[in-house]
Model the fold of this input.
Amino acid sequence: MAEPVIQFDRVCKSFDGHPVLRDFSLSVERGEFLTVIGRSGCGKTTALRLVNGLISADTGWVLVKGQDVAQADPVALRRGIGYTIQNVGLFPHMTVEKNIAYVPSLSKSPLWKGEERSRRAAELLQTVGLEPDLAGRYPRELSGGQRQRVGIARALAAQPDILLMDEPFGAVDEITRRQLQDEILRLHQERGITILFVTHDIEEALKLGTRVLVMEEGRATQFGPPSALLSSPATPFAAQLVRRSRDFAPRQ
Amino acid sequence: MELIQAILALYRERGGWFLGLLWDHFLLSGQAILLSGSIGLLLGIFIAQRPRLAPAVMGVCNVLYTIPAISLLGILIPFTGIGNKTAVIALTIYGVMPMVRNTYVGLTTLDPDILEAAAGMGSTAMQTLLRVKLPMAAGVILAGVRNMVVMTVSVAGIASFVGAGGLGVSIYRGITIYDPAMTAAGSILIASLAVLLDFLLGRVEKHFKKYGS
Ligand SMILES: Nc1ncnc2c1ncn2[C@@H]1O[C@H](COP(=O)(O)OP(=O)(O)O)[C@@H](O)[C@H]1O
Ligand SMILES: [Mg+2]
Done:
């Protein structure tokens, strides 16, 4: 069996004496689309930030492609992992094109020089369903949904094989949200990347995930395919989640 | 009315002399502006990276800032003598404070989400500083530059008290020979220079503020 791409091994993490992750273990296979669902404050963002080393575990290990994150060079590690944060965080002083080209420009990638940069940025804009002529705009000139898409394009630019997405579709209307969900599904299928996707929307978690992780107060309480979560929720919280979503079709 | 006529007469008769003083004034304040601009910027960046040092550094800058200009010049004379050098040093010490304050505030009040994104995408500390933090803080920093430039140009007017050049020479002479028109003529040029620079920097600042947040 293939080695997991991301692995949490009995991770504990506290902030100011408050445990946020407790004995948290998880194995993510290559090419998996893992959706993480749980109440606000249950430690979802904390788990993501452990993967790219923005914070480090108090005890236990986090391994990315077999390498201990605590031992890895954080800069090199992060450049190989796409990351979209909860509030997009586009750079306001850069055009859309420069935002998208940010990671390649950090590593001075020759693939992103001069006209190549414009061509590749335009290509990525199309990939996330945007018009290429948005390239020259500034983030403040975009709608919420457009910003989310640019954030995804930016995370994809360096062709990472892992993508961490923290409630990426939080701030958009229902229709845009559906569209974005379909885009990300298509991207996942086309590129075969491993995605860790945090959401607090059960419908979204079931629709997108090849597997769903339920978190409660820093613990992983259920982990399995969406159909299993629907048919046999393991905890009262999980049961409560799925009761509201029986009508939705889970990902096959 | 008489005063205005006397001032205009002075400009007519001694235009070359005033232009020379204006140029000297520009050079004198220019040196101090470059010095306090770069020292203040570096110091501001330094304490923004090490917030624990910030209160102490800002405290010292504040104290220096509150020393009356004339006594700062007096204190410096025994160490650096009289002339332009002393004036430049005093003006630099003054100008550092608004620069440090604005650089520090600009760099430490940035949107944490954007900093999270910058770090999460694998920027080194230097890349984050140069590509994200400084450009985003540019509006606030430029407000400090503007503040500092106007102050330096105007305080440079008393530099002639320690034998430095610039328009202070005409102010000082006006006082000693009891010729108010001479004093006013110099002051008007200082004020005009300050207003002009303030306007120009205001334009630059506005440009950067637009993209600041
Ligand atoms: N850097 C931090 N410092 C202090 N407390 C934090 C920090 N990051 C997260 N927390 C706390 O940890 C808990 C879990 O946060 P988080 O992982 O962001 O939750 P979620 O993303 O599931 O909403 C919260 O109570 C939050 O206040
Ligand atoms: Mg969160």
About this structure: The pocket of magnesium ion (ligand 2) is lined by residues A 44-45, 86, 166 (CB under 6 Å). The mean pLDDT of chain B is 93. Residues 2-211 of chain B form a domain with the MetI-like fold fold (CATH 1.10.3720.10). Residues 139 and 207 of chain B are 8 Å apart (CA to CA).
